[in-house]
From TrEMBL:
Pfam families: FeS_assembly_P. Residues 22-95 form the MIP18 family-like domain. It comes from Suttonella indologenes. It comes from the Bacteria. This is FeS assembly SUF system protein.
Length: 118
């Protein structure tokens, strides 16, 4: 497969983003950890996105705020369903990553402001 690397923590309004990048990030931003009022993209839970133009497959590498997170069993399904709503994505596979472990400094400035951390 020929994967396209999608940059992370880019602002959704960045004109350098392709329409596909913007659409995938928009869908990722629709997924929330129910215990935190910030989307998973801004929380820094998305480590990598790859997209194969030939097959339409997206691979999402992500983590959780903690391995024992109560939604650990269902959040990958939420991410898969969200990304598969993007035109051009035929299939999405979500890979849970624990290295490096998530840290609060992985959050975007927007998330830190939303959570009154600044």
């Amino acid at each position: 497969m020929e994967f396209e690397q999608i940059p992370f923590q880019k602002d959704i309004d960045d004109p350098a983003l392709s329409p596909l990048e913007r659409d995938i990030i928009t869908e990722l931003k629709s997924v929330y950890d129910p215990e935190i009022p910030v989307d998973i993209y801004e929380l820094g839970l998305i480590y990598d996105i790859q997209y194969d133009k030939k097959t339409g497959q997206a691979d999402i590498h992500m983590t959780l705020t903690a391995p024992g997170c109560p939604v650990a069993g269902v959040m990958p399904d939420w991410v898969k369903e969200a990304v598969e709503r993007v035109d051009g994505v035929e299939h999405c596979e979500v890979h849970m990553e624990w290295d490096p472990p998530w840290r609060m400094d992985m959050m975007s400035l927007r998330a830190k402001i939303e959570l009154n951390m600044i």
